[in-house]
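Let us practice reading a record.
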Amino acid sequence: QAQLVESGGGLVQAGDSLRLSCAVSGRSLIQNDMVGWFRQPPGKERTFVGAIDWDGGNAHSPDVVKGRFTISRDNTKNTIYLQMNSLKPEDTAVYYCALGLGTTRTSDYYSWGQGTQVTVSS
């Protein structure tokens, strides 16, 4: 059973950058594993931010964050990163990483971290 722990959130100003980390323990990530990032603003649904395949490192993101957010991984540390640049107040949310199929649907992920808060002030 994999455990995921996010870190790196905080309070920043609009235009700043943050890098979130997702450390995976309990088992080593292997070929065909997909790790996704989601976010959930207060009072709203959890939405897809992007995903990466562990083996090839190929990532994809929705248009709403494309060009600003980048997902990467470090195989040696069993860790996935979400680099967020040019942050906007509307990026304020709790950010989660999850292990699953790499789709945009939360129901396709079976292991979730506890989340890390990102707050962007204007």
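A brief commentary: The radius of gyration is 13 Å.
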